[in-house]
Specification:
Structural class: mainly alpha
Order of helices and strands: HHHHHHHHHHHH
Distance between the termini: 60 Å
Helix content: over 70%
Oligomer: single chain
Strand content: under 5%
Number of strands: 0
Radius of gyration: 18 Å
């Protein structure tokens, strides 16, 4: 039988569950960082990304509802995260739409779910299912550790070419700047909740499994953007 890991061992195992599966290393992220994309590719990214991150407060709402009242700190964090997504200063999705419009698409296209691809629909559905059905600490591990904690490392790599290679203004890329700072805090707090409340070997192992799955889901989602929108353009260029 698997034994309960110490706090340090469990933290290392959680971090290890993401390694090798980071979305920053997926083909779309690499092409972005290398300055190989066009604004139309960013438009397609935004039209998909909206339907993954747009419902994030909804996912968190299910986790909040599934968290027992005695875990005040975990409930407070989840509520704060929801607040920051939706009504603190400016909605994060409004900043995403601002970027999308700078890429040549429209609010209507971004909000239309028919413009996301099948893998994005799968990621969104997985997030809802995990948030609704899993123990609150497992759902926190999946969505906050496995998914959200990756954001700073992804956007730090991508924001530099947005300014330089692609020529976006600071207002147009505020979405990325905001998440580089806010998701460092969110990710670390998610780690602390999981370390504090995954207090059996079974819960620890399920958290690790769902962190791995979350990282794999985000990697597959990011890769699918390249396969769906960038590869066909490269093939047409080569054929011409």
């Amino acid at each position: 039988m698997t034994e309960l890991l110490s706090r340090d061992e469990f933290r290392s195992a959680l971090e290890g569950a993401i390694k090798g599966r980071e979305a920053k290393n997926a083909s779309f992220s690499r092409a972005w960082a290398d300055g190989e994309l066009k604004r139309e590719h960013f438009a397609r990214w935004a039209e998909n990304h909206y339907h993954y991150v747009g419902p994030f407060a909804d996912y968190l709402g299910y986790i909040y509802g599934n968290t027992p009242d005695e875990f005040t700190g975990a409930k407070d964090f989840t509520l704060q995260n929801m607040y920051e997504e939706e009504i603190a200063d400016i909605r994060h999705t409004d900043l995403l739409i601002r970027f999308a419009e700078a890429c040549g698409t429209t609010r209507e296209r971004v909000e239309d779910p028919s413009n996301m691809n099948a893998v994005t629909r799968g990621l969104q559905s997985w997030c809802y299912a995990v948030a609704m059905r899993e123990h609150f600490v497992v759902a926190t591990a999946a969505l906050v550790v496995g998914l959200e904690s990756q954001v700073p490392s992804i956007y730090k790599k991508q924001i530099i070419p947005l300014r330089g290679s692609y020529g976006f203004t600071e207002d147009e890329i505020e979405f990325f700047e905001l998440h580089i700072t806010s998701d460092v805090v969110h990710g670390e707090r998610g780690y602390q909740i999981v370390l504090d409340h995954a207090d059996t070997p079974q819960l620890q192992q399920r958290c690790l499994q769902f962190v791995r799955w979350g990282a794999e889901m985000r990697f597959a989602y990011t890769k699918s953007l390249y396969d769906t929108y960038v590869s066909p353009d490269l093939e047409q260029t080569a054929a011409a």
